[in-house]
Amino acid sequence: LQCTIDIRRTVQMLRSQRSGMVQTEAQYKFVYMSVHYYIDTFAKLLHEHKRIEDTGHEYTNIRYSAEAASNQVIPISPSPFGSSMRPCNHPQCEACSSTPVVYQPEIIPPPRPKKVPRNPRPENS
């Protein structure tokens, strides 16, 4: 990543091979932003690989030695409403005195795409 990138010379080299490539200012900006994005992404990837090498991989679905040695099993109590999720109608039943709570996650709309300003088409001279 410690190098110099001459976008102008690279674009000139592209145009020598393909005459119609990169002719407008918007296309130059696109090339520059693409190269900038690639360098940033590559730098983040290198940083993440270095962090993993330093700290090791992080796994979330493993049992650590302290947990395995203790062999603690947490019993799961059955639902007070049974499989039908309907309370019984007995007035002395504790399950009937509480109302079941239904979890509904918030509906989050997908992110909107960013609008890229377009330059009007150049007039043919």
Automatic annotation (TrEMBL):
Residue ranges, annotated region (Disordered) = 103-125
Q: Name one GO cellular component term.
A: cytoplasm
Pfam families xrefs: Y_phosphatase
Query: Where does the Tyrosine specific protein phosphatases domain lie?
Result: 1-29
Q: Which domain of life is it from?
A: Eukaryota
Task: Choose any GO biological process term that the UniProt entry carries and state it.
Answer: positive regulation of ERK1 and ERK2 cascade
Which UniProt keyword terms apply here?
Answer: Receptor
- What molecular functions are annotated in GO for this chain? cell adhesion molecule binding; non-membrane spanning protein tyrosine phosphatase activity; receptor tyrosine kinase binding
Entries under PANTHER family matching the protein: TYROSINE-PROTEIN PHOSPHATASE NON-RECEPTOR TYPE, TYROSINE-PROTEIN PHOSPHATASE NON-RECEPTOR TYPE 11
Question: What name goes with this protein?
Answer: Tyrosine-protein phosphatase non-receptor type 11
Write down the species: Trichinella britovi (Parasitic roundworm)
Output the lineage of the source organism: Eukaryota, Metazoa, Ecdysozoa, Nematoda, Enoplea
